[in-house]
Amino acid sequence: LYRLVLRNVGGVKSSKELTQAGFEDVMAVFEDSGFREIGKPPTYWRDKVSIRGVFCGERMARKITELAAEQGYALAGLCRRFSNDRVEGVDKLKPRQAWKLIEMLKAVVDRNQQAASESQISEGGGPRSPAMATMGPRMPSESSSPFEALLAKEGAICQSNSQ
After folding, report:
1. What SS3 class is residue 55?
2. How far apart are CA 27 and CA 19, in angstroms?
3. Which 8-state DSSP code applies to residue 52?
4. Residue 31 CB: number of other CB atoms within 10 A?
5. Per-residue pLDDT tens for 82-117?
6. Using CA atoms, how far apart are residues 82 and 68, in angstroms rounded to an integer?
7. Following CA atoms 43, 48, 50, 52 in sequence, which dihedral angle do they give, to the nearest 10 degrees?
8. Can you tell me the distance from the alpha carbon of 107 to that of 118, in angstroms, rounded to the nearest whole number?
9. Phi-psi region for residue 21, left (φ > 0), alpha (ψ -120 to 50) or beta?
10. How far is CA 107 from CA 46, 94, 102, 111, 117, in A?
11. Hey, how many other C-beta atoms are within 10 angstroms of the C-beta on 29?
12. Mind listing the pLDDT tens digit for each residue in 56-92?
């Protein structure tokens, strides 16, 4: 029975190959056959499958909650804004609205990290560039202009002549 359900419902030969949606489908079939998960309502998996695509998933909701907590945003306000004042809870956002909110929060995180690194560089504490961070001080031959290189060369010649 198990392999038959895996093949017909999940479309796989082994449970290792199941996607999250396939896993939920298989569990809903077993639940419909009389199996119950301890600590969950009797229709937990069937309800989960029936609302798929209507509301955002648990992973999206968790990601939104984590990103919003890092930035200190009011989560209810963000949900209202992205759902056009329809909902205040993350779990009731539509998948597209949740995706847009995640992308906005990721952009804020990136912007804040970039601003922090720029302020560190402007204070003199940061590296010149990622490639040069591992390099030591610049040698005269590595100067940024030909004029500086010429001056460095002339200075070296003058020093050797004076000795």
Report:
1. strand
2. 12
3. B
4. 20
5. 888 888 888 888 888 989 999 999 998 888 888 888
6. 13
7. 180
8. 16
9. alpha
10. 35, 20, 9, 6, 15
11. 19
12. 878 888 999 888 888 878 888 888 888 888 888 888 8
Q: Beta partners for 55?
A: 52
Q: Which two tokens stand for residue 122?
A: 């402007």
- The whole-angstrom separation of Cα 5 and Cα 33 is 11
> From CA 101, how far away is CA 122, in angstroms rounded?
31
DSSP-derived secondary structure letter, 53: T
Backbone CA torsion sign across 77, 78, 83, 84: positive
Beta-bridge partners for 68: none
Which residues, including other chains, have CB under 8 Å from residue 74's CB and lie 6 or more apart?
Answer: none
CA distance 59 to 49: 15
Q: Which amino acid is at 157?
A: I
Q: Which residue has the tokens 């560089």?
A: 121
pTM of the predicted structure, to 2 decimals: 0.50
For residue 109, give Cα distances in angstroms to 70, 74, 130: 8, 15, 20
